[in-house]
Amino acid sequence: GTEEPTGDTKKKIDILLKAVGDTPIMKTKKWAVERTRTIQGLVDFIKKFLKLMASEQLFIYVNQSFAPSPDQEVGTLYECFGSDGKLVLHYCKTQAWG
Amino acid sequence: ISCSMAGEEDFFLEEKRFKQYCEEFIKHSQQIGDGWEWRTSKDLGDGYLSKTHFQVRNRNIPSDLKEKNNDNIEQMLFTRVEESLDDSQVAGVCATEEVIRYEYHILYSSSYQVPVLYFRACFLDGRPLTLDEIWKSVHACYQARLLEGPWDTITQQEHPLLGQPFFVLHPCRTNEFMSSILTGSRKQNRHTNYIILWLSIVGPVVGLNLPLSYAKLGPEQNTNTD
Questions:
Q1: Residue B172 falls in the annotated catalytic set
Q2: Suppose A52 and one of A47, B49, B76, B171 were both cysteines; which one would form an S-S bond, judging by CB atoms 3.0 to 4.6 Å apart?
Q3: Which of B97, B98, B92, B67 minimizes the C-alpha distance to B80?
């Protein structure tokens, strides 16, 4: 693959995905994701990976206490909440209204 | 906190706790100038969180442009104006950006024992948005779910304290999805502000995004349970 510069100029960040509750667990949990990928982009990716329907809802949380808005970039989240070289995100399949 | 027969914890929010979380929320809002305030109703002494903000929305965007992001939309709109429009069409294109005034209220529901998000929206000339316009303005990522059951999602109701018509995001599943995430964080003794967590989830559905700094509220570990 292509080489990437180390340090702050790395284009991708490491994300560790953890399932919450009854949500299916992803076989691969650790992903290198482009900094500019949005939360919504990540949600779509996880839903595809888990073979969920478009209308099923999946939410992503940081710090287990906050859901970043859909347009939030993961690079920013990494700067704010990353540690040990990765960003831990929890995801949960749930109905949020009704 | 009550416990269901299955041994799972329910996280029904008591009104006192609601007010405490709101207080913490307001404090942070004031620190960052996010515009939330606490209002009390004269007769009843009940209080609620309130915020007003303005959003610019693009209307009448041709469907082939909907896929592109906002920067491209503006570029393409201007290109179209230069290339192919005559005077009668220009007026229509200029009306494509509109300013909408949103007013959000967070009230406590004693019947559901959860917070509930009420909101209303109007154009600058005072015309309120219709329910249909509200549904159309829901963030793209929730549209698939919304289309399955719009009446389960956002409807119009009388505001419990003000008696005026407001839109409301249905709260009957709130306890369910809050419990899933709170169970995990509670096990790790994290202090989680219920209002912040809840609003960060439901807010974006109706155009309300919480700044990231709310996520850092409270110590990472809290040795005392709530």
A1: yes
A2: A47
A3: B92
Q: Which amino acid is at B40?
A: T
Q: Cα B62 to chain center, whole Å? A: 27
Name the residue with higher pLDDT: A52 or B141.
Answer: A52
Return the structure tokens found at A56. 């099923």
Q: Is the pTM for the entire model greater than 0.90? A: no
Q: Residues of B with CB below 8 A from A62's CB?
A: 215
Query: Could B181 and A20 be called an inter-chain contact, meaning their C-beta atoms sit closer than 8 Å?
Result: yes
pLDDT of B222 reads 37
A19-59 per-position pLDDT tens digit? 988 899 999 999 999 999 999 999 999 999 999 987 788 89
User: How close A2 gets to chain B, by Cα (Å)?
Assistant: 28
Q: Spell out the domains of chain A, with CATH numbers in brackets.
A: 12-92 (3.10.20.90)
- Is the domain covering B15-56+97-214 a CATH 3.30.1460.50 domain? yes
Interface contacts A/B by beta carbons within 8 Å: 108
Are A41 and A70 spatial neighbours (Cβ–Cβ below 8 Å)?
A: no
What's the distance, CA B128 to chain centroid?
17
Maximum alpha-carbon separation in chain B: 69
The answer to whether the beta carbons of residues B142 and A71 sit under 8 Å apart is: no
Q: Positive or negative CA dihedral for A47, A49, A50, A53?
A: positive
Contacts with A37 from chain B: Cβ below 8 Å: none
Q: So what's the ipTM on this one? A: 0.85
Q: How far is B217 from chain A (nearest CA, A)?
A: 9
